[in-house]
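queue> pop job 88
queue> type: inverse folding (structure -> sequence)
queue> payload:
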């Protein structure tokens, strides 16, 4: 399955200069053969610009899957829908419209999805809004995780909060994409709030795969030290992973150590990876 990174914090290739690709804090990726768009970035500007520059028609995706409700993954929704002529099916966890906040040095600020449920359902470019809790098959060999159990490893939810604004949010809506082929499974993550081990173990369970081929996306290792990153590296190697591309919230240290450990392709906007 061919995956292209459409939105990322980073532009890491000179082709970004030639094609005038835009980077922003956020994430979006496209599974070409399955026609699945995964997240839409923060603003819509980077997504629309980069899809056009990379020759991916705005109307091509059949499905839009949200990794979770935070606006660095949902913020481009309005602009994306306004540019569509063909209705699209949207798939997300049932917690998609819950309140969400982040906390920086200036305090709490809202980071929820920019559209309400009724507004989204009524939009002319929305064919269907499918809200799920458990696993969901999108296309042959492609699954949305639904809610990921947290029983194999730690969660990565530092700095994010829910409606009560006091306790860190467990982000139950954090959902990965799993691509299964034979006895191998690849995982695509938006932020990885569920934790790497939980994402992978649940993917192996859902798909029935025996080992991991690839992991691509945000792993929320930003702010963690070398010890945690090296723990993740040992775990992924034990699972047979051959391609690991940390993007977005993986952080500079995590991206560097993962790249060194696996010799994987560089991420960044415009990167295409065979998963």
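queue> result:
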């Amino acid at each position: 399955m061919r995956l292209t990174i459409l939105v990322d914090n980073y532009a890491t290739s000179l082709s970004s200069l030639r094609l005038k690709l835009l980077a922003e804090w956020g994430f979006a990726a496209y599974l070409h053969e399955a026609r699945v768009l995964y997240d839409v970035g923060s603003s819509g500007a980077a997504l629309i610009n980069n899809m056009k520059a990379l020759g991916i028609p705005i109307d091509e995706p059949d499905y839009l899957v949200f990794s979770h409700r935070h606006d660095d993954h949902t913020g481009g929704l309005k602009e994306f829908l306004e540019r569509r002529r063909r209705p699209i099916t949207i798939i997300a966890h049932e917690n998609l419209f819950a309140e969400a906040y982040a906390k920086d040095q200036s305090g709490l600020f809202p980071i929820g999805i920019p559209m309400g449920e009724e507004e989204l359902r009524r939009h002319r470019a929305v064919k269907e809004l499918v809200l799920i809790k458990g696993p969901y098959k999108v296309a042959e060999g492609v699954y949305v995780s639904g809610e990921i159990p947290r029983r194999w490893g730690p969660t990565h939810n530092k700095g994010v909060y829910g409606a009560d604004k006091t306790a860190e949010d467990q982000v139950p809506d954090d959902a990965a994409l799993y691509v299964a082929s034979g006895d191998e499974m690849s995982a695509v993550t938006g932020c990885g709030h569920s934790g790497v081990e939980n994402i992978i173990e649940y993917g192996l369970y859902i798909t029935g795969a025996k080992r991991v081929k690839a992991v691509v996306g945000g792993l929320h290792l930003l702010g963690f030290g070398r010890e945690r990153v090296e723990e993740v590296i040992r775990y992924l190697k034990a699972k047979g992973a051959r391609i690991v591309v940390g993007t977005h919230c993986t952080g500079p240290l995590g991206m560097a150590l993962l790249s060194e450990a696996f010799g994987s392709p560089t991420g960044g906007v415009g990167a295409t990876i065979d998963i």
